[in-house]
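Continued from yesterday's entry.
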Amino acid sequence: MKQYTLANAPMVNQIRLCPGETQDELVAYCKERNILLEAYSPLGTGQIFKVPEMQVLAEKYQKSIAQICIRWSLQNGFLPLPKSVTAERIRENMDVFGFELSDEDVRLIAGLTGCVGLSKDPDTINW
């Protein structure tokens, strides 16, 4: 990875970051350098809605799975960038500040792997 000085360090790194795809090495690198991580696709590819552990957490917190994912991003210090064209879902996605996930649940979500349906590494796709 390229080394940055304070004068030319990026302030934000937008990466695919969601339960099931945490990119731990890159997250650690950015956090060590105070680079804000903007999490695009914080809900994965929609496959996260089928994960039984996420369904249990949604029931536990009386929130939607989307809200659980967004809250998880915030508690990890990420800036989530959820996408929706539905007014109701946009409002729901903003309603994530009245609750907090337990440390145990944050770790449980971080430990989910292979559940977001990423089919190809974008670095290997022939565009």
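--- second protein ---
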Amino acid sequence: MGIAVITDHSFPSARIQHEVFEAAGLPLREVQPICKTEDDIIRMCGDADVLLVQWAPVTRKVLEALPRVRCIVRYGVGVNNFELDAAKALGVCAANVPDFCIEEVSDHAMAMILSLCRRIPQDHLQISRGGWGVNDLRPIYAPSDLTLGLVSFGKIARRVAVKAKVFGFAIAAYDPLVPDAVFAEYGVRKLDLNALLAASDIVSLHCPLIAETTHLINAETIARMKPGVVLINTSRGPVVDESALIAALESGAIHSAGLDVFEQEPPAPDNPLRTMPNVILTSHAASVSEKAVDVLQRKAAEAARDFLQGKRPVSALW
């Protein structure tokens, strides 16, 4: 029959997962305290046939030390904490929740885009300090005069495109893996990365974290952007080289930024981003709504349950 083990999670409880497993008559165990390292997983999950994982690193070292594990399930879309090549080579099934938080993250990105285009955080700050008036905040452009550039054009970015069109933004996107027909379907102009950076007044990042996208936004790519561009990141922190971003925010090369993710989470207390007046910061919160988090837990649990029942999880990556 086998057993599933929850290595780590940040939910108020794992009630939903336990409900799924109890209904199927299958055992589920939570690790306490949660696993944070490879050695934690190896030490505490030796009885597991399936691992349910949020942030813990599931590497070749882990999988080779735990030969009983035949399936790993990620609470979320991204699987950059899984060493997928090793899992595949060792015959371990990997699954995620690919349709998690599409509406939530696209809403969060749009909230940041509109706030920064309208200079809302800057105006709030000046009023809180005794100031008043819009002249120091200008230029302020209407959305219909701005181009929104989307880096990656997957499910979340497509929802951003739909929502942004309501406000009148011209929209372009870069994604070499998406067919031209999809861009045409959404009425979005397809550009290569350099052309997108040069054309966009707002650049919104929606790419997964892989080797090719690590520090995709760096001093060199920032230099290709329009002066005074707005940068939004609701994807993964290491997509942006924070030192280059901070320098660009200080110089004005980037007008302002909305960041939900960071290279180090939480950011260090002395990280300059924490005190910059032209930055909106949120706590890796873009994916969160009560409904989305409940659905995430249920779908991850169902994938683990299905594997133990001898079925291929619908979200299996191979």
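Residues 290-308 form the longest helix (19 residues). The chain has twelve helices and twelve strands. Will compare against the first tomorrow.
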